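Customer escalation, tier 2.

The customer says the design service returned an amino acid string that "doesn't look like it belongs to this structure." They asked us to rerun it and document both sides in this ticket. The original structure tokens are below, unchanged.
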């Protein structure tokens, strides 16, 4: 593992650019970014740090990026991945505590709206929806005849 300052810079620009990340603007220094050199099935991941890490180091969240997969991405895909991972970081409105949330589905709607079907897994998910819709239409047509 190694610190990924270039990802930090990209993430901070996405946080400033996207209104959906406005809750992170005051927490930029509480997120740390790392490259993971091991081959993984995932490109990125966010992990909430322990209370001890938070108290000792002030770090609430770590974003891990799989370096071998990252290096194959275009700049726009990299931005999409970072934006997606930031979508997992939410703030409890009552306590202000950082929490990690799951996906809407396999992807966040806002990411697909902003970037389209830029990632292969998102394209596969869209194709599955289209196939299901087509099958549904076919079944409806058959029922009417």
């Amino acid at each position: 593992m190694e610190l990924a300052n270039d990802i930090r810079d990209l993430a901070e620009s996405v946080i400033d650019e996207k209104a959906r990340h406005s809750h992170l603007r005051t927490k930029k220094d509480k997120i740390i970014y790392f490259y993971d050199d091991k081959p993984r099935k995932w490109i990125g991941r966010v992990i909430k740090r322990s209370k001890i890490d938070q108290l000792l180091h002030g770090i609430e969240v770590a974003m891990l990026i799989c370096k071998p997969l990252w290096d194959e991405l275009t700049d726009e895909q990299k931005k999409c991945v970072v934006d997606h991972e930031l979508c997992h970081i939410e703030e409890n409105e009552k306590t202000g505590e950082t929490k990690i949330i799951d996906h809407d589905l396999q992807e966040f709607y806002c990411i697909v709206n902003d970037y389209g079907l830029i990632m292969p897994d998102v394209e596969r998910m869209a194709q599955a929806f289209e196939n299901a819709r087509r099958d549904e239409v076919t079944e409806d047509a058959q029922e009417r005849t």
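Tier 2 assessment: The sequence is consistent with the input. Residues 103-145 form one domain. The chain has two domains: 2-101, 103-145. Sent an explanation to the customer and offered a walkthrough call.
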